[in-house]
Amino acid sequence: MQALPPRAVTAICHALQEQIEHGLLAPGCKLPAERKLSEVFDTTRITLREALVQLEARGLIYREERRGWFVAPERLTYDLIERSHFHAMVQAQGREASTELLSARLQPATAAVCARLQLPPLSSVIQICRLRRINGRAVLYAEHYLNPEYFAGILDCDLSQSLTELYERHYGIHYGRVRFEILPTALPVAAAQALKVSAGSPGLHITRVNSDQHGRLIDCDLEYWRHDAVRIRAEAG
Amino acid sequence: MQALPPRAVTAICHALQEQIEHGLLAPGCKLPAERKLSEVFDTTRITLREALVQLEARGLIYREERRGWFVAPERLTYDLIERSHFHAMVQAQGREASTELLSARLQPATAAVCARLQLPPLSSVIQICRLRRINGRAVLYAEHYLNPEYFAGILDCDLSQSLTELYERHYGIHYGRVRFEILPTALPVAAAQALKVSAGSPGLHITRVNSDQHGRLIDCDLEYWRHDAVRIRAEAG
DNA sequence: GAGTGGTCTAGACCACCAA
DNA sequence: TGGTGGTCTAGACCACTCC
Q1: Sites in chain A below the pLDDT cut of 70
Q2: Nearest residue to C16 (CA, C1')?
Q3: pTM
Q4: Whole-number pLDDT of residue B82
Q5: Chain B residue closest to A60 (CA)?
Q6: Which of B56, B71, B86 is the endpoint of a domain?
Q7: Among candidates A206, A102, A63, A195, which has minimal Cα distance to B231?
Q8: What is the CATH classification number for the domain harbouring B147?
Q9: For residue range A192-218, what is the model confidence (pLDDT) as tens digits?
Q10: Which domain-ending residue is among A31, A51, A71?
Q11: How far apart are CA B14 and CA B51, in angstroms?
């Protein structure tokens, strides 16, 4: 419990944090160049970057690769129990959602996906990769794996809309039981590239395994979130 | 989607990861000194440390402050729905749990705690700070805030045991509805010190607000986990 | 006391982004 | 094309751990 040593990094963190919390640096606002900041705080770029990385870990600022550092907007609240879908969740919280389809195709399932969906080895699954934004900022990279038995012809649909609604409208399927698994870990390469996050920066990996109203395992989602973009809620008992 | 540039950091990560995954470096095992490793990989300590930090973010290795780097043991699975308590959870997964009482006292509640427990301003609450270990490794720093109205005399009990069991045995109280909030963020100073984690390293902050069998708000927990020590499960619908 | 990790300095080159 | 962030070098000193 002794007093902490006065570190350069700590001092820089406090100074920047104070500016942000008092609104002098508004959410979405770009910070000055690293070289400028290191002059301002009279230190080297290495030390300055260390401070920025710490603030990034706390979720106060974020970076866009090669573009600079920005003040982080507020987190999205993700309620596991309500099970609303992305667009509805974002809109309900007063922001604007958009979805970009990255790829969609039928392909052999990985062993992990077979296990989650209880498919026999060498099964084919429909893989849909999407990037989702809040107010233009990429926050979520998601890979969906669908049991093709239940979703014939889905590859011809508009897959940038909500899958939840598509399931209901075209297939009369809606979600029943859902299993979540939440893992704080670094983002894998595909997710980091899509989110334009520097490789190895922390992220949140959420796996959802979804059953429909008849208890059939219909699909699973591998979601990779920016760690600073989300807050998870749940209620039990 | 282009090939990634061959980075020194990436190469080091892969080399170490491969050693770990093939069991040449067993869980709990200490890595060689940073200066040794930087010689082995023919690079500087700064670069070498960058690689270690990335592996740390992925949860493959962890550090104990000023003691060195170690291969990470497997994560604990934390099931939000089962609502078993820490010791039971750890034992059920074949490991050994221990709890160290750091402090326990009656004190004025912070505004945040008042809000969570729906107490009037300036209320007193019982604060219990504890450090919890798995196989000797500190993984969780927890602050419990109890509504003193329901727990008279609890400060004289042995508070290193399970509070869940204590509630039941001495007060006839058990948990009803529980609300969770999960936030990936850097560990605050108190948690970082207790867990002997370097300040600002990523962690997982879980808030639990607990009601009893009669629906009364009885306590809330602020939990700070090492990010690499836990995997969260939940089921809905 | 030797060696370790934690911190910091003072530069450098490159690839990429924006003007 | 100039400035930016991304990466890397080659050292240094200090506080702490462990022997």
Answers
A1: 1-6
A2: A66
A3: 0.92
A4: 86
A5: B185
A6: B71
A7: A206
A8: 3.40.1410.10
A9: 888 888 877 889 999 999 999 999 999
A10: A71
A11: 9
